[in-house]
Amino acid sequence: MNFLQKIAQRLLLIFQFVLVFLFILFEEIIWEGIAKPIYEKIQSLKILQKLKVQIAHSNRYVILVLFLVLLLTVEAAGLLAGVFFVQGYILFGLTLYMAKIPIAAFVFWLFKVSKRKLLSFNWFLWAYEKLMDGLAWLKNLDIYKTTVKYMSEFKSKIKKQWKTIKVKYFSKNSRFTEELKSFYSYIKNFKNQK
User: Fold this and answer.
1) Would you say 137 and 146 are in contact if contact means Cβ atoms under 8 Å apart?
2) Which residues neighbour 181 within 8 Å (Cβ) at sequence distance 6 or greater?
């Protein structure tokens, strides 16, 4: 029985690691790097301020249907992109995944704006609370905390190295920049001589 418990613990640890890895990948790369700037841009659009007023006056069932259709479309696009990745159509899968990000950012905005109306449905409130509980559970795992700490240290090392490279090669007075400018003027003059 001890042997089976050890295997079960190892499998649980692997499962937790995969969940944490995917969550951090989504949070750090997709949300922070791509979706959040798009979401902030969407939020600042004046047309959405008018839409926000319309949503406030709309029936909760209309908002629910709109939200669910957009959410399911985004999720289906993500799954389809995954299928394309697996089948070897990397560029097509990446394009589809990138195309869904602005729609996902809009769905997130729609949820934020109409949260009160959407949560007025008992089943939706239940699902939302379960999702939040799941995220809280994930963020409380030791493996999550350790991985986030490691990622933070890794990011700061990368930033530090990038600053060093930037100062060494891309400052105004660096030898590399001077040679690049010289090469550019040579190509420009060569082109003009023809």
Assistant:
1) no
2) none
Can you give the pTM of this predicted structure? 0.62
Does residue 168 surpass a pLDDT of 80?
Answer: no
State both tokens at 139: 């963020």
pLDDT (tens digit per residue) in 57-67: 889 999 999 99
Can you read off the two tokens belonging to residue 116? 């009160």
- The label of the residue with tokens 């951090």 reads 24
Cβ(111)–Cβ(67) below 8 Å: yes
100: Cβ–Cβ under 8 A, 6 or more apart, which residues?
A: 74, 77, 78, 81
Query: What token pair was written down for 107?
Result: 């769905």
Helices and strands per DSSP (H, E), number in the chain = 9, 0
Contacts 24+ apart (CB under 8 A), 18-25: 19/138, 20/138, 20/141, 20/143, 20/144, 20/147, 21/147, 23/135, 23/138, 23/144, 24/144, 24/147, 24/148, 24/151
Please write the tens of the pLDDT for every residue from 115-163.
999 999 999 999 999 988 887 887 887 877 887 787 778 777 877 887 7
Q: Residue type at 160?
A: K
Record the tokens describing residue 183, joined without a space. 């090469």
